[in-house]
Amino acid sequence: MTELISLKNISKSFGGKLVFCDANMSIKTAEPAVIMGKNGCGKSTLLKIIAGLLKHTGGEITRTPGIKISFAPDRFPKLPFKVEEYMQHMGKIQGLTSTEIDKYITQQFDYLGIPANIKSQVIYKCSKGTIQKINIMQAFLTKSDLLLMDEPFSGLDEGSIERLLQLLAKTAQENTAIIISCHEKLLAQRFTDNMYIFNGQSLAKAVSAAYRLCIKTTAATGQPQEIIIHKDKLNETLTALMQNGKEIYSVNPIKE
Asked: Within a 10 A sphere around the Cβ of 203, how many other Cβ atoms?
C-alpha cells in the first residue's frame, strides 16, 4: 500500500465564501475511498483539487511525482463529436493505436450494454445514461495510478451499476487508487467502507466496526426488521439480501 497524495488541512473558498476547510486525506493504492455529503457541500470541488484541476485556498497537498490521474466528472460535456471519434481522439492522446482503441470500444460497448450503432452518434444527442457510460469508458481507457470519479452511478440502470462496481473492484485489485464521490449511502457502502463525510464545512473520516441494516419483513406486523452486520460481512450480506429479493430501507454505520 503506497501513499500517492496527502491532503493536510485543505480549504477552498470562492469569492471570499468558504466552501470547506480542514480537509485531511491520505490517498493510497489498494485502499479505495468514497467522499459523501449533501449536494453543494464540496465533493466535486475536492475531487478537482485532488486532480489538480483547481487550486486550493489553504493547506498543503503532497503528490508523488509523475503519477497518472484519470478523472470522470459529474457533468460530462455534451460534445459535438461522434462517440467513436471522441474515443479515438482520447486514446491517441494517451499513446494507443487505432486498432487498440477499436478493440477497447468494442469490449466496453459489450460490457456496458451500449448498442453498436451508438458509435456513430453525436455525443450531445445521446441519452444521459449513455453519456455517463462514455464518461466511464474514457476514465478507464488506459491504466492510471489514481482514478477519480464524481458521482459515477448517476444515470445508470441497475445492471450497469453492477458492472461498474465489478469494474471498480477489479481496478482496485490492480493497484490503482480509487476515490469516488457518491450521495447514495447503499451504493457507497457496497464500494468500500473507507468513507469520508462532509459535515457542514468539515470533512471527517467515518469510523465504524458494524452497520445497522433495516430491511422489509414478511411478518404480519409489516414492521421493518433491523439486523447488525460486521463491516467485513457487509458486502456479501447486501448482495445475498438483494439476490433474494429483500427490500433494504437503510444501511447506517454504527460509530465506534
From this structure: 24
Cell of 141: 481507457
The model's pTM is 0.81
Contact yes or no for 45/36 (Cβ under 8 A): no
CB 248 within 8 A of CB 224: no
| 157 vs 212 pLDDT, higher one | 157
Neighbours of 39 (CB within 10 A): 8
The answer for residues whose C-beta is within 8 angstroms of residue 71's C-beta and 6 or more apart is 47, 51, 53, 139, 148, 149, 150
Query: Which strands form 208-215's sheet, in the order they lie side by side?
Result: 225-230, 208-215, 248-255
| String of DSSP letters for 149-214 | EESTTTT--HHHHHHHHHHHHHHHHTT-EEEEE-S-HHHHHHH-S-EEEEETTEEEE--EEEEEEE
Q: How big is the chain, counted in residues? A: 256
Q: Tell me how crowded residue 129 is: count the other CB atoms within 10 A of its CB.
A: 16
Instruction: Tell me the average pLDDT across 188-208.
Output: 85
123, HSE (Cβ side, Cα atoms, 13 Å): 18
List, in order, residues 6 or more apart from 188 with CB less than 8 Å away. 34, 36, 180, 182, 195
pLDDT in tens, 74-85: 989 888 999 999
